[in-house]
Fold:
Amino acid sequence: MGFWSSIGSAFSSACSAVCGAVSSIGSALSSFASGVGSVIAGIVSALSPVAESLGKFVSAFLQGLGILKPDEKAEDLGERALQAAEKGITLDQFDNFDSYVDALRNLELDPDKAANRSSAEKLVAGIGVGNVGLERKFNASPGSFDSLWL
Structure:
């Protein structure tokens, strides 16, 4: 019982940390972070091969829809969004999604912060930002694409 209890505790801690970080990006991501984001964070934290495959899928999917450029990865977008949020730059401050993503692309990254952040945080943040991009691209209501990532 102690083993499973410690696994559950680690899983819960990982989900809380990732979802807290993703929620900091802006209010548009708060429901994603607390719902689907927590499930994805747990899976990514526990299963490294799944995380790698999911990252590749998400990047290719968002590239195909023009949300990411061909050379961009979801994890990189997530890291940029997280570092931007630490500087007070959030999605809520922009009139449109494209302006926000342009600001992220022009943000100078701190390589030490990026090196110390988990791949789960980066990926879930990237998926969250990409999810908002999908909603805006297709004029869908917030949360419409959340379950797509599961």
Notes: DSSP finds eight helices and no strands in the chain. The chain has a mean pLDDT of 80.
